[in-house]
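User: Some background: our group keeps a shared notebook of sequences we're curious about, and every so often someone picks one and asks for a predicted structure to add to the entry. Today it's my turn. The entry only has the sequence so far, pasted here. Could you supply the structure so I can complete it?
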Amino acid sequence: MDPFLALLNSFSSCLSESDLAALKFLCRGEISKKKLESVQSGRDLFSIFLEQQLIASDNLSFLEELFKNIKRQDLVSKLKKFEEEGEAGATDDQPDAHEKPIEVICDNVGRDWKMLMRKLDISDVKLERIVAAHPCNLYEQLSQSLREWQKWKGRDAKVTDLIKALRDCRMNLVADKVEQ
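Assistant: Of course. Here's the predicted structure to add to the notebook entry:
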């Protein structure tokens, strides 16, 4: 389960009708009147925010401003705690933006990418869905598969696991590049 969606769900259950009405009013400049009229819960509103890319797990400023405006400091605190835990959860051997192992792997692994993903315990069903979503783009298939693995593993997604899987697949040159 995505921790960010779980957080949004918990926010939704904390919102009163007047909180929701205030949030809808504050969003009039960002969301069409027709869409706002269909909003019946915080989940509905957060879904629109996600669709319109107003919020994301790494972009919470819009939501924070809204909570501040409706005087819900408790929700602002939960949001800040979520942000801090996300940063604290990134350890040196986790895939992150600084190491970019996904990019290195995508640039260097070819048609045998499914073998690598199976070593990482990604199901064939997920792999087939990814292939269907990106039928002619090998790079994107591998990239999405690695992101799926990262989401599935969460904080347990380690670069060392990627390197071990690469070596198990006899992709030692790629493993060496990831290590560098």
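Suggested note for the entry: The chain has two domains: 3-86, 98-179. The domain at 3-86 is CATH 1.10.533.10 (Death Domain, Fas).
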